[in-house]
Design a protein that fits this description.
63% helix; 553 residues; globular; mainly alpha; two-stranded antiparallel sheet
């Protein structure tokens, strides 16, 4: 027993250390725009005591992560590595928790397969190196679900129910606070709890049929009453509206029910296609555990597929449960087919012996192992994981914009331009130190309705936001000189796929007519245009109603 315990702890340390080292590769690569909310706010937190961006901007969403990033800055110094370190730690903890869970509830082989495949997946690597709250959300939800699973597997009592609620409810509330998609995971977890408690009772022949009918009727009435109350108080409408809301940048995917299916097929064509068969093997071997993972993942998969907003980040909370299914099923299949490997090797040996004219048992085994390995290699997930760590884009994915490459050419204009207009304000603030106006239809609609007007400051970043070509024309007319910076992939006929929603032909025509292109290095993947009305420029009277711009000008 002591030996097994020691082996368990050693295996846990090995997979934890390996995951941490893997996720620590290339942490200094260029930042994603969403990461900069926490990074800039963390810098503001250290300077002002609040998660401030600019003079009046405050970014409160996911504040615990911002606070942790600030502490990482205070300890290690400001850097992208320090900013991403909390996410690395949370993802490593999730891998360890998944490994311990599968080892405890199933067996070591399932633990290595499930946790190991998840650890090196593009899903885990992307969130481990992303300064955002998704890795923390995934860890908290998984721990809460694990605790529920443990309690449901034991005899119930009033005190156990109360203890479970005290432990789980705060975790789930915290996960919802980090990311509301946790509610979809809770729906799956709740469905499994009802099934795990109710189904054994319903199929128990010792329970009278009339009790079962009354119980089912009571549950249905309670569910209808809950839905009715939610509808009457407007809660249902609010939830449905939020559930189906799609931001401008995500509009093309809003009604794409196959979005997640396509991504799983792209990364794991073999495993995803065979998920049904793998699940059957897992169900035969570990029915309760398989039902637990299957219910949570399938509920999350279908609810996220029907939701308006689509992103692999939004379903991250459910992905560990898919790898639980794969780990359990593959482990069961491998154990059941262990003798098959030896029989196939023995049958291959004479074939290689005829070619080599000598015993070829080892070569036959190696050939068979390579054949099995090829099943994994044809799944492009490993390639995507490697390219993520190397920060290499795989076509048709566009390469990441490089602010550092653009900065030397932009700097002279940044120092003398009266206004800097950009379509990506967070990167400009972080890398260039300046963003005076943001042109973004997506960010414009995120401003509270009561404050939404052209040139109203984004309450998160304090940068004034405009959304149309008329407002951009006023910005050009009201400033003697300026520079306009945008991503090359949002410009011209090169725009494709989801990026197409970010293109505005009217803006392109205005900029090309009123400004001169600035020759930026191609590797920056930015476009810049400048204008200069000359020393005799006199601000038009119409600009007087733009106090924010006038003050900055």
């Amino acid at each position: 027993m002591i030996k097994n315990l020691a082996q368990g702890w050693l295996a846990t340390l090995v997979i934890g250390a390996a995951a941490f080292l893997l996720y620590s590769i290339n942490l200094e690569r260029l930042a994603d725009a969403d990461e900069l909310y926490h990074i800039l706010a963390a810098q503001g937190l250290l300077e002002t005591g609040e998660p401030s961006i600019g003079e009046d901007g405050r970014y409160w969403r996911g504040y615990p992560l911002t606070w942790l990033v600030a502490q990482s800055f205070a300890f290690l110094g400001p850097s992208l590595t320090a900013a991403r370190l909390p996410a690395v730690v949370f993802m490593t903890a999730l891998i360890v928790a998944l490994f311990v869970f599968l080892r405890r509830e199933a067996n070591p082989l399932a633990a290595w397969l499930g946790a190991g495949l998840f650890a090196v997946s593009p899903f885990a690597i992307s969130m481990a190196q992303f300064t955002r709250f998704y890795s923390l959300q995934g860890l908290v939800f998984f721990v809460a679900a694990w605790f529920v699973y443990l309690q449901i597997s034991r005899p119930w009592s009033f005190w156990r129910l109360g203890g479970t609620a005290v432990a789980v409810v705060p975790l789930l509330i915290f996960a919802i606070y980090l990311q509301p998609t946790t509610l979809l995971g809770i729906a799956g977890l709740g469905l499994w709890v009802v099934a795990a408690v109710l189904l054994p009772w319903l199929f128990d022949p010792a329970v009278p049929s009339r009790f079962k009918r009354w119980a089912i009727a009571g549950l249905l009435l309670a569910a209808l009453a809950a839905v009715g109350m939610a509808w009457a108080f407007g809660i249902l409408d609010s939830l449905l509206s939020r559930y189906r809301t799609t931001m401008v940048f995500n509009e093309l995917q809003g009604d794409n029910f196959l979005f997640y299916h396509i991504w799983y097929m792209l990364y794991y064509p073999t495993l995803w296609t065979l998920t049904g068969v793998i699940t059957v093997a897992a169900l035969i071997d570990r029915p309760r555990l398989t039902g637990f993972a299957l219910t949570i993942f399938l509920t999350g998969f279908f609810l996220n597929s029907f939701a308006g907003a689509k992103s692999l980040r939004y379903i991250f909370y459910a992905q560990p449960f898919l790898f639980i299914l794969w780990g359990l099923g593959l482990a069961a299949i491998l154990r059941a087919s262990g003798g098959l490997f030896h029989r196939l090797r023995d049958q291959l040996e004479p074939i290689f012996a005829q070619l080599l004219r000598r015993p070829a048992r080892g070569l036959a085994g190696a050939f068979l192992a390579l054949a099995i390995l090829s099943v994994l290699l044809v799944n492009p997930a490993w390639l995507r994981s490697v390219t993520m760590l190397a920060d290499v884009a795989v076509p048709p994915q566009p390469m990441r914009e490089d602010w550092l490459a653009a900065e030397p050419t932009l700097r002279p204009w940044l120092d003398r331009a009266e206004v800097v207009v950009t379509t990506e304000e967070l990167g400009a603030l972080y890398y260039l130190g300046r963003a005076d106006i943001l042109l973004s239809a997506s960010k414009f609609v995120e401003i509270p309705a009561e404050d939404r007007r052209p040139f109203a400051p984004d309450p998160r970043s304090d940068v004034p936001v405009i959304a149309d070509v008329q407002s951009l024309a006023r910005a050009i007319d009201c400033h003697a000189s300026g520079i306009f910076i945008t991503k090359a992939k949002w410009w011209g006929d090169t725009t494709f796929g989801p990026e197409a929603t970010m293109r505005d032909v009217a803006v392109e025509e205005l900029i090309e007519a009123r400004a001169e292109p600035l020759d930026l290095p191609p590797e920056s993947r930015f476009l810049a245009f400048t204008w200069d009305h000359g020393e005799s420029f006199d601000r038009p009277p119409a600009c007087r109603d733009l106090p924010t711009i006038a003050a900055r000008g």
